[in-house]
Design a protein that fits this description.
This protein is 90% helix and 0% strand. It contains 2 helices and no strands.
Length: 67
């Protein structure tokens, strides 16, 4: 049952590039900026989370090797 939500999220993410050009063409400059900033937030949040998690794991590994 764990695969169903993942497939839904992957499907939504894969469908985004197909509808994006027509969607963006109908936007004004202000609307595009709002959409773009929202997109950057959606992409930056998990990337930042992974970066912090990677740093925490690296620090733990360094501390374990120095004991």
């Amino acid at each position: 049952m764990y695969w169903a939500p993942r497939l839904i999220i992957i499907g939504i993410a894969c469908s985004m590039p197909f509808s994006t050009p027509g969607f963006i063409a109908g936007m004004g400059e202000g609307e595009f900026m709002v959409w773009f900033l929202r997109l950057m937030w959606v992409l930056a949040f998990p990337a930042g989370f992974c970066l912090v998690l990677g740093l925490v794991l690296a620090v733990k590994k360094i501390r374990q090797t120095h004991k």
